[in-house]
Write a structure and sequence with these properties.
The complex is a heterodimer of chains A (499) and B (156). Chain A has 24 helices and 2 strands. Chain A is mostly helical and 499 residues long. Chain A has one domain (2-233, 249-498). In chain A, strands 1-2 form a two-stranded antiparallel ribbon. In chain A, helix 4 (55-80) crosses helix 5. With 156 residues, chain B is an all-alpha fold. Chain B has helices spanning 5-25, 42-60, 76-96, 98-112, 118-123, 126-139, 147-151.
Chain lengths: 499, 156
């Protein structure tokens, strides 16, 4: 193994490759900040450029772009409440409130440190346990995935509801309903399209997230413009751009990072689960671990609340390479594009790669890690300048957020139906937010809706329509018991507050 | 009798769920799939029932935490202007192209939000959009459809 690591390192540390990773990180950060253009698009854009390179240089460039795009996504989540990819939605829960308090630089720095630490810990796991963990990823069956998604949705409803669990559960159902619009994945039958061709492909994630987060946030700021309690605070530019993290915050991060890394990595190993579920579950888990005083800060700019999802989503990114490299199964869209790139270079990932071509296996892992190191070195000095976006006066910032949202949608579809739909959903979301209906459960339900229906379909078909699949397998049963405990805990705490 | 806004929203959600369930029951499935344990209708039917149960519970159960909104503090005028500008923007973007429509949208939004520094408003609309388009189209090679710029020969 040591020999493999050294071969990987010597390849990755050549001058050309370091230059490539720097270019990749920079381009990835810019692409990742634009809504609609996540890591998958960023890597796909790089594939034709890398054709002339040797495989290791090409992979290193893509690694830089990958981590750059993930960091770019977090930046737009924190500064504008506009998560470009599902994996960074949970980052906005505490990152955006922290930025609103004039600590944008600090929030970005915490995100960068947490991402780096999460990536580092998971890279070590990847080095040590990748071959044996591939068995774990095969052990999960459809009923387990279905139960895992029910757990994820219940957990996010419990944690984001601020004591109004039913409201959050209604938002989950609304998110799942929106996810069913369009063609059924197996039979191709169109559902809830009302003969409108524009809805045949369903509603895009970027449209929903831009409408419910970025656009409705912009509308809410304008809407509540006369509210004396929400009058704009005077934010000093020095504080806004400061990336200094004090001792207390460092201790909080040090407690959060190890547990979120482990959870993120293990969730990332499961094909299909990926960074989104990992970040939401890490957020929920962290809220359970901290004391009552810290719990109250969640959703208002908590260091734990920002660090946990950022650590977990990066750890899950590394974890998703386990099924790719050891089984040849891409667990997410991004790793599917990476698989395409690897095949383009003549590398066939799979169970034999680790034995027959260890040098390629290690150079892929090392190049991913070097991508993260360079990203941290490159982006930390830029944070004070990026954070100043928030110093732009409201009269300019709001139209620019709207422009940012509309462009993201236009880039994907080039039709105006999607823009009309986004405006409609944003107006509804603005009113729902006004009456404390939480948006995060809706987003997670929308993201998981397709996969949830798919796993339920498989489970019911295998069990011939019987609900036995819910308790036949121990993993499914354990996950469902945890879900039931969360629901009853919510009912109990509501009852306790009432009495 | 005064109904609270939260209960009113729940009532609307109940109506939506009933309509959703009705539509779900009318989804056309293949004849061979009709009696299958799972078809295109199954999941939406579960969701429809879930929506009905949850919204009914919200309507029936007493409200523990009430959300109060002071409507005097809400700026309805600005938000209506902004929504109208956005709708006009969406309506014309395909006809007059991304560059002109986006620049005009930004300029009009700055104006309606109370900005009057004309020079800055111009810079942050027309040249800003041009620079953004150059970044996407020229540097990152990301296609951005603009029939107008194509017609006058600026874009390929």
């Amino acid at each position: 193994m040591i020999e493999g690591i050294l071969i990987g390192l010597s390849t990755a540390l050549s001058l050309t490759n370091i230059l490539m990773v720097m270019v990749g990180c920079f381009a990835g950060t810019i692409i990742g900040m634009l809504p609609g253009l996540g890591p998958m698009t960023a890597i796909a854009l790089m594939i034709p450029i890398t054709y002339g390179f040797d495989p290791s240089t090409g992979l290193i460039l893509m690694a830089g772009v990958y981590y750059g795009a993930v960091f770019g996504g977090s930046t737009s989540s924190i500064l504008l409440n506009a998560p470009g990819i599902p994996g960074t939605v949970a980052t906005a829960f505490d990152g955006y409130p922290m930025a609103q308090q004039g600590k944008a630089g600090k929030a970005l720095a915490i995100a960068a440190y947490s991402s780096f630490a999460g990536g580092t810990i998971s890279a070590i796991f990847l080095l040590v346990a990748a071959p044996s963990l591939s068995k774990v990823s095969l052990a999960f069956r459809s009923p387990d995935y279905f139960a895992l998604m029910i757990l994820g949705l219940t957990a996010i409803s419990a944690f984001s509801s601020k004591g109004q669990f039913l409201k959050a559960m209604m938002m989950v159902v609304l998110g799942l309903m929106l996810a069913t619009v369009g063609q059924d994945s197996l039979s191709d039958i169109t559902r809830f399209t009302f003969n409108n061709m524009n809805l045949t492909d369903g509603i895009s994630f970027v449209l929903i997230v831009m409408a419910t987060f970025a656009m409705s946030e912009a509308l809410t700021i304008i809407f509540r413009g006369k509210d004396p309690n929400r009058a704009a605070k005077q934010i000093s530019l020095t504080e806004l751009g400061s990336i200094k993290v004090n001792k207390e915050e460092t201790i909080k991060m040090a407690k959060t990072i190890p547990r979120s890394s482990i959870l993120g990595f293990l969730i990332g190993v499961l094909p299909g689960a990926g960074a989104t579920i990992a970040s939401f579950l890490a957020y929920g888990m962290e809220r359970n671990y901290v004391n009552e005083e810290e719990k109250q800060k969640f959703g208002k700019g908590s260091v734990h609340g920002l660090s946990a999802p950022e650590t977990a989503n990066n750890a899950a990114c590394s974890g998703s390479f386990v099924p790719l490299l050891t089984l040849g199964i891409p667990g997410s869209g991004t790793t599917a594009v990476m698989l395409g790139a690897l095949l383009g270079f003549g590398i066939q990932p799979g169970p034999r790669l680790y034995q027959t071509n260890p040098e390629i296996f290690w150079s892929v892992i090392m190049s991913m890690y070097i991508g993260m190191v360079v990203l941290l070195i490159l982006n930390l000095p830029l944070i004070p300048y990026i954070a100043r976006i928030l110093a732009v006066p409201r009269n300019y910032l709001i139209p620019l957020i709207l422009f940012f949202s509309v462009t993201g949608i236009y880039l994907m579809s080039f039709n105006n139906f999607d823009i009309f739909l986004m405006i409609g959903i944003a107006v509804v979301a603005t009113f729902l937010r006004l009456y404390d209906f939480p948006m995060p459960p809706l987003i997670l339900a929308f993201v998981l809706g397709g996969l949830m229906e798919e796993t339920l379909r498989r489970s019911l078909l295998i069990s011939d329509g019987s609900p036995n699949f819910l308790w036949d397998r121990p993993i499914t049963l354990i996950i469902l018991i945890i879900t039931i405990v969360i629901v009853f805990w919510q009912i109990f705490s509501t009852f306790r507050k009432k009495t | 009798m005064r109904i609270s806004p939260t209960k009113f929203i729940s009532l609307l959600f109940l109506v939506l769920s009933v309509f959703y369930l009705y539509t779900a029951n009318n989804i056309q499935v293949f004849a061979f799939d009709e009696n299958s344990p799972f078809n295109a209708r199954t999941f939406p039917i579960y969701l429809g029932w879930a929506g009905i149960i949850l919204s009914s519970l919200k309507i029936i159960l007493p409200e523990k935490i009430t959300t109060e909104v002071n409507h005097k503090h809400l700026d309805y005028k600005s938000i209506i202007y902004l929504i109208i500008i956005s709708l006009i923007y969406a309506a014309v973007i395909l006809k007059i192209g991304y560059f002109i429509s986006t620049s005009l949208f930004l300029f009009a939004s700055y104006y309606f939000l109370g900005e009057r520094r004309w020079g800055l408003m111009f810079i942050l609309s027309f040249p800003f959009v041009a620079a953004f388009m150059y970044l996407l189209h020229g540097l990152l090679n990301i296609y951005l459809r603009d029939p107008f710029l194509k017609y006058i020969g600026v874009m390929g």
